[in-house]
Amino acid sequence: MTDSIMSKAATMEIPINSNGDTGTLPEDDSLEQAAKLQWNLDEKVGSSRGTRDLQQVMVSGPNLNETSIVSGGYGGTAEGIIPTSSIKGSNMHHSSSSSSMAADEATRGVAVEKLETMKKWGLNTYKCTKQIISERFGRGSRTVDLELEAQIEVLRDTKKKYENVLRLARALTNHFYNMVQTQHALGDTFADLSQKSPELRDEFGYNAETQKLLCKNGETLLGAVNFFVSSINTLVNKTMEDTLMTIKMYENARLEFDAYRSDLEELSLGPKDAVAMARIDTAQQQYQVQKDKYERLRSDVIIKLKFLEENKVKVMHKQLLLFHNAISAYFAGNQEQLEQTLKQFNIKLRPPGADKPSWLEEQ
């Protein structure tokens, strides 16, 4: 249909007037309509082809990883073409290599630090071991503080004796607790027999009341003895032990101080060249550090020994008075004095069954 219309338009004659203008023909309208129709058809065909081309490009278009960057101008040679995939790969390789290098540097730094620590520890251990052997065989000198070492020996001997007191007090507590439990069971038995033996009701009743009274007084005495044991245990295993730990640190510092002092003396007796003088300077600095540490710990030990002696006298004065008054009142049968002793030292007895958790705590 389109070809017939175009052939008709091509073979049609166009008359020209005398003025040179084209005349008005009755077919002008049909020609104009035919031209518009052809233009619309061409536009639709072109748009459909453009849509198909765009879809094809979107589906199977060029990969961005395979595109190229042209370094030269238009129409240049292929020597200036750089694939972008190679640029991306080189960047990724550079970033991974830099991260691996950073991790290697960190690992190397930690290893070097550990190696230096082990080196210092090994050198210090060697010097201290050498000093111990020299002192044991009488070939090395030793820093001695006679007054302080005498106080340390007294403390160690005192701790052993107080540990023995603590052991015996705990044994007394266990034996007395068993006796109180036996008295309690015996009193219950006497009370039951007084109900079942009419002919001996009074005799069993007297003994039941006596055992119950002894049991009550025994529980009061147990409260006082337990308080005595707890205070001695705190004095021996906490206060004295803390002071002895400081003394142990002081003795280690004394050994290190003597080891570095001996090392400095040996270097001072050697040659005086440049290398030896550098070693002497280093040894002098290490000796000064150990000397400061030794003097600081020595001062700490002196202060702790002084406070420990004051605390020991104060605590033992109170506890020995409590122990004496409680034992005397119990065996004298003076229940009122026994209870007054507990009030004097602010000792509160736990009611029977207080050690057991409640049913709510057991849930």
Overall SS class: mainly alpha
Average pLDDT score? 77
* Strand arrangement in the largest pleated sheet: 1-2
Q: What is the N-to-C succession of helices and strands?
A: HHEEHHHHHH
What amount of the residues lies in strands? under 5%
Q: Mind explaining what this structure looks like?
A:
This protein has 8 helices and 2 strands; from the N terminus they run ααββαααααα. It is mostly helical and 363 residues long. It starts with a helix and ends with a helix.
Quick summary:
This protein has helices at 2-11, 28-60, 84-136, 146-196, 201-268, 274-331, 335-344, 359-362, and strands at residues 68-70, 81-83. It has 363 residues and is mainly alpha-helical.
Protein traits:
363 residues; 8 helices; mainly alpha; 2% strand; elongated
